[in-house]
Amino acid sequence: MAAKGFNRIIIIITTISAAIMELLDTTIVNVALNQMAGSLGATIEDVAWVVTSYAIANVIIIPMTGFLAEYFGRKTYYLASMIIFTVASYFCGASEGLWELVFWRFIQGVGGGALLSTSQSILFDAFEPKDRPIASGLFGMGIVLGPTLGPTLGGLIVDNLTWSDIFYVNLPIGVLASILTILFIEKKEGEGTRKKQIQIDYLGIFLLTAGIGSLQFILEKGESEDWFDSHLIILFTAVAVVGLVSFVVWELYTEHPVVNLKVLKHRTLALTLIFTFVSGIGLFTSVFVYPVLVQRINGFTSTMTGLSLMFPTLIAIPMFPIIGKQMAKGARPVPFIVVGFLLFIAFGIWAGTLSGDANMWDFFPAHLLRVLGISMLQLPLINQAVAGLKPQEYPTGISLNNMVRQLGGATGIAIANNYVTNRVAQHRSDLMSNMTSENPLFMERLNGLTNTMASRTGEFFSATQMAYRQMEGMVMKQAYLLAYLDTFRIVSLFFIVIFPLIFLLRTPKKSQEEAQKAALAAADSH
User: Fold this and answer.
1) What are the two backbone dihedrals, phi and then psi, of residue 65, each rounded to the nearest 5 degrees?
2) What distance in Å separates the CA atoms of residue 76 and residue 80, rounded to the nearest whole number?
3) DSSP symbol at 64
4) Phi, psi angles (nearest 5°) of residue 144
5) Which residues fall within 8 angstroms of residue 37, CB to CB, at 6 or more apart?
6) Cα–Cα distance for residue pair 427/504, rounded to 1 Å
7) Among 127, 190, 278, 350, which residue's beta carbon has the most beta carbons within 10 A?
8) What is the DSSP string of 241-299?
9) What is the SS3 assignment for 226?
10) pTM score, two decimals?
11) For 160-186, what is each residue's pLDDT tens digit?
12) In terms of pLDDT, which residue wins out, 200 or 237?
C-alpha cells in the first residue's frame, strides 16, 4: 500500500539517503588513496584493494539480494544491511593496517550491496503505480549525486581532516536511516514468512564467493608475484577456474539456484553482458586512475580533484531522466549504446594526450565526454539486457547485468594496477636510455642542475650526486605520467575491440506497456 503525507516524505529521505551513502562510498575513497598509502605504509597498487574489495563484495551480494530479501523479509534484510554497512564504516575509519582496512571494506560492501535495489523497491512501494515515474526521477537524481558528491566530499575531508573521516561521515547518516527504517518503513504482507519453503543454495553461494574472490586475487597480485612462477598464483588460479566453472554448471542444473543462469540462453542478454562488462571497466577504471594521476603528477589537492570530477557530472545530470523517459516510451537502446561507446572511446583518446602540467579545466572536456558516455550506457544497457526476456525474468536479467558491471569495474581496476606497474618500468627504461654522456641535451641539463646545487652547497661532488637523484625523480614522474596516459588509451581499446559486436544486437519490438514494465523492473532491480 502506498504511503501518504509525512510517512512518504520520511521514506523518501530514508531510502534516498541510504542509496546516496552506498554510492558515495564507491568513489569517496578514490581521492584519498595517496594519503592512505602514506599513512598505512603501503604502495598505491596495494591500496587499490580498498576500492576493489568493496567492488568484489558488491559483485557477490548483488545477485543474491532478491533471494535474501525474500528469505529474511525485505525490511529485516534492509535494516540488517544498513547496520552492517554503518558498523563496518566505523571499523574502516579505525583501521590501523592496510589489510584490516581491506577486510572491513569488504564487509561494508556486503552491507552496501543491498542498499540500492532494496531502497528503490521500498521507495516505489510508497507511491501509487501512476506516480512511480516521480519516484524513479527522485531516485535517479540520488544515483547520479552519490558518485558525483563522493570525490568532492572526500577531497574536502582529506584536505581538512584525515582519510579516516571519509568513513566516519557514514555514521550519523546510517544511524538516522536505521532508526527511521524501524519507525516508518512497514513490512509487506507475508514478508519473511516463507523461510520453510525456500531452499538456500549454499553450494552456489560458496562457489560464487570462492571463484570471484580468487579471480580478483590473481588479477591484483599476479604482477607482483611474477604470475605463474608463483605457487600462490597457481593455487588461486585453480580455485578460480574450478569455482567459476562449477558455479555455472551447478546453477544451470540445480532446482533452486541462487543466481538463475538459465536466462543466459537468451542471446540478447548474453551479448549485452559483454558490453556491460566493458562499460564497468570504463566507468570504474577512469575514476580510479584519474585521481591518482592528478595528485601524484599534476599536484592537485584532493578538493581540486573532487571538484574537477563534479562540474562535468552536474552538467550531464539532465541526460539521465531524459533517457529514462525515452526508454519508457519504447525507444530502442542500441542507438544510445552506440553513442555511449563512441563517447567513451573519445574520452580515452583525449585523456591520453594530456600533460603533466594540465590544470583542472584542461581535463574538463574529457570528463564531460566520460559522463555523457555513462548517461548513454547505464539505463539503455539494462533495457537491452531484458529485451528478449519474459517479464518474470526481468529481475534476474537485470541482477546479472548489475553484477557483471561491478565485476567489470573490479577487473578494470586490477588490470589498470598491473598495467601501470608494467608500463612505468618500460617507460623508465626508455627514458633512462637517453641519460648518457653522448646526449648533449642530457649533459646540458645535468650540468645546469649540478651548478645550481654546487652554488647552494659549495661542494661539487655532492652536488653532482644530488643532480643525478633529481634527474631520476624527473624520469620517474614522467614514466608514471606516460603510464597513466597509456591506461586511458587502454580503456578506449576495450571499447574499440568489442564495438563491432554492437551490430549483432537485436532489440525485439515491445509495446509501450511492455517497455514501461521493463523500465520499472530496471528501476526496481537497479
Assistant:
1) -65, -40
2) 6
3) G
4) -80, -40
5) 43, 44, 46, 47
6) 39
7) 278
8) HHHHHHHHHHHHH-SS-SS-GGGGGSHHHHHHHHHHHHHHHHHHHHHHHHHHHHHHTS-
9) coil
10) 0.77
11) 888 888 888 888 888 888 888 888 777
12) 237
Owner of C-alpha cell 626508455: 430
- Residue 88's pLDDT is what? 93
* CB count in 10 Å sphere of residue 445: 16
What HEC string does 458-515 produce? CCHHHHHHHHHHHHHHHHHHHHHHHHHHHHHHHHHHHHHHHHHHHHHCCCCCCCHHHH
Among the listed residues 258, 221, 250, the one whose alpha carbon sits nearest the alpha carbon of residue 69: 258
* Distance in angstroms (rounded) separating the CA atoms of residues 118 and 22: 12
End-to-end CA distance of the chain: 22
Higher-confidence residue: 231 or 402? 231
Give residue for cell 577504471.
285
> What pLDDT was estimated at residue 386?
73
Q: What cell was used for 298?
A: 599534476
DSSP H helical segments within 317-459, as ranges?
A: 319-328, 333-351, 364-385, 394-432, 440-457
- Angstrom distance (rounded) from CA 520 to CA 406: 21
List the grid coordinates of 137. 526521477
Give, as one character, the DSSP assignment of residue 391: G
